[in-house]
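Weekly structure sync, notes
Attendees: PL (lead), two postdocs, one rotation student
Agenda item 3: pending single-chain targets
PL asked that the sequence for the first pending target be pasted directly into the notes so everyone works from the same version. It is reproduced below exactly as submitted, 219 residues in total.
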Amino acid sequence: MIPWRWPRSCWVSTLPGEPPGRVHRGSRRSVGCSVRRETTGCLPKVTTGTIESIRLIRIVRDSAIKARSIALVQLQDVLITAPAQLREAVTAKSARRKAAQCGALRPDLGRMDEPLQAAKMTLRGLSRRIKFLGEEISDIDHQLDTLVANVAPTLLSRLGGKQHAAQLLITAGENIDRLTSEAAFARLCGAAPTPPLLATPIGCGCIAEATAEPTAPCT
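Predicted structure, written out during the meeting:
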């Protein structure tokens, strides 16, 4: 199977006497080698620059955002099924404010067999997790903002949001000269239109049956 991402170190040179971009049909190994050759015109991304650092930092940011969203949903679910005394004590409306209010709960560790104290401990743990993930995301955003501003200040002035600019840089890559046209960028993003498939008859056993003349109806 041909991987989606090939580093530049995996390139192989064109074999002597072989035409550029030649692909032998039926040979998977030759297809893989052809993909890795720079003679095919499909240049891989450079992974030794600042944009690669942005891509790596975005990975941990995305996972932290997902984890915080899950914790917020869990906190609201626990509040729904918590004892009425505890549920009525949390008067905040938004999920973030509910999490901040739950962080002040003080469960009695000596009475963990009671659902009220267990719910308090659960809500306080989720609140602390949400707060920790929020601080982590803020630190990551600070690092991303610095890297994006250093790499593409003009892009920021035109695009606005730094997260959108970071994603655009990751998609284009460090060696943006490999994108020779808007069509190449659309193909990279998966937004290029595909040619329509040839119309084929459905439910036919063979081509001969599909192209045969219809039988005249009986009279």
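Discussion points:
- Residues 8-40 form one domain.
- The chain is about 55% helix and 0% strand.
Action: rotation student to compare against the earlier draft before next sync.
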